Structure formats: C-alpha cells, structure tokens
C-alpha cells in the first residue's frame, strides 16, 4: 500500500483547530496518534508472526497458554486475560486448533468449560515468533529505550485512571 501522501493526524488536528481551537485539538491529536500507531503496530506485528501462520492475537493466546503451569486455560478465562469477548477467544482457539497449535478438551474440574491446551507445535511457533518479535523490538525499533519507558509510563497513568487495574 505504501506511505500516505499526508499525515492523517496532522490533517485531523488542523481541521480540529479550525473548528474548536488549539486547546481541544491537543487531546484529539494525542488520541488520534495513539489509534493510528495501534494500526501501524498491529500491521507490523502481524507481518512478523505471519511466517509462523499466526496473527498477533493468536500469538498472544499461545504465549498466554505457554505461561500457565499446565499449558492450558478455560477458553472463557483465556478471553478475560486477552481482554476480548468469549466469542473472539473461541475463534482464536478454533484457528489455533486448526493449525495444530492447541487442542480443545473438556475440563475435568468444570463440565461446562472447555480448555485450550497448547501443543508442542504451538510452543515451538510461540518461541520462534517471540524471537523475531524481540529482534524487531515488537515493531518499536525506531524508538529509544527511554522512549519505550516514557510511552509505557504515560499510558500506565491513563490505564490507572480508567480503572484498568489496581495500583
């Protein structure tokens, strides 16, 4: 697709300033920058994990499963931890199962629950994709380590204010 001919954030800010002034344009530009950066990063991350037949959300699910004690989670709990709706979590698990990265099995503790269990193939894909993501600094290699920390700290303040977690 290639680069855009204009900076869409700067263009949106210009229009906002014309209509509402400089003061309201600042937070609008900040939010628009965050949203655009999310789109750019998701595209980069998806490209990095594509050789492993993964999307970034599927990669996140594999890594989450690999962190658990037994490599398994109920699909509902997986969705909670990924912060996606249960339907999305089920779709992610179905795609991972189709590629042999996970298997679904009934829970022995809760007859209503289905577990997603990572396979050795899933663990290998997660390890290889993680190496590539680490090498590319998760798509943030254009930034310095100090900028990484600044972004993390700034967004932590926003997340804390929104009640995303307890400090």
Short description:
The protein is built from seven helices and three strands, in the order αααβααββαα. The chain has helices at residues 8-20, 22-49, 56-67, 75-82, 86-98, 120-135, 145-161; strands at residues 72-74, 102-106, 114-118.
Query: CATH architecture of the largest domain, please?
Result: Orthogonal Bundle
- Give me the CATH superfamily of the largest domain: Winged helix-like DNA-binding domain superfamily/Winged helix DNA-binding domain
String of helices and strands: HHHEHHEEHH
- How far apart are the termini? 42 Å
Q: Any idea how many domains?
A: 2
**How many strands?**
3
Largest sheet: 3 strands, antiparallel
Regarding CATH, which class of the largest domain?
A: Mainly Alpha
Shape: elongated
| Regions with little confidence, pLDDT below 50 for 5+ residues | none
What does this protein look like?
The protein is mainly alpha-helical and 167 residues long. The chain folds into two domains: 1-52, no CATH class; 53-138, Winged helix-like DNA-binding domain superfamily/Winged helix DNA-binding domain (Arc Repressor Mutant, subunit A, Orthogonal Bundle). 64% of the residues lie in helices and 8% in strands. Strands 1-3-2 form a three-stranded antiparallel sheet. A hairpin with a 7-residue loop joins strand 2 and strand 3 (114-118). It is elongated. The model has no long low-confidence stretch (mean pLDDT 95).
């Amino acid at each position: 697709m290639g680069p855009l001919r204009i900076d869409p954030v700067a263009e949106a800010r210009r229009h906002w300033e014309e209509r509402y002034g400089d003061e309201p344009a600042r937070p609008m530009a900040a939010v628009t920058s965050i949203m655009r950066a999310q789109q750019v990063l998701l595209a980069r991350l998806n490209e990095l994990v594509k050789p492993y037949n993964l999307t970034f959300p599927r990669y996140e699910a594999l890594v989450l499963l690999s962190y658990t004690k037994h490599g398994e989670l109920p699909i509902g709990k997986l969705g909670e931890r990924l912060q996606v709706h249960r339907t999305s979590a089920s779709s992610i698990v179905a795609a991972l199962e189709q590629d042999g990265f996970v298997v679904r099995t009934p829970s022995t503790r809760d007859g209503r629950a289905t577990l997603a269990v990572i396979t050795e193939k899933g663990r290998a894909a997660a390890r290889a994709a993680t190496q590539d993501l680490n090498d590319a600094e998760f798509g943030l290699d254009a930034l310095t380590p100090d900028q990484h920390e600044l972004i993390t700290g700034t967004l932590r303040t926003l997340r804390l204010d929104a009640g995303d977690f307890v400090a």
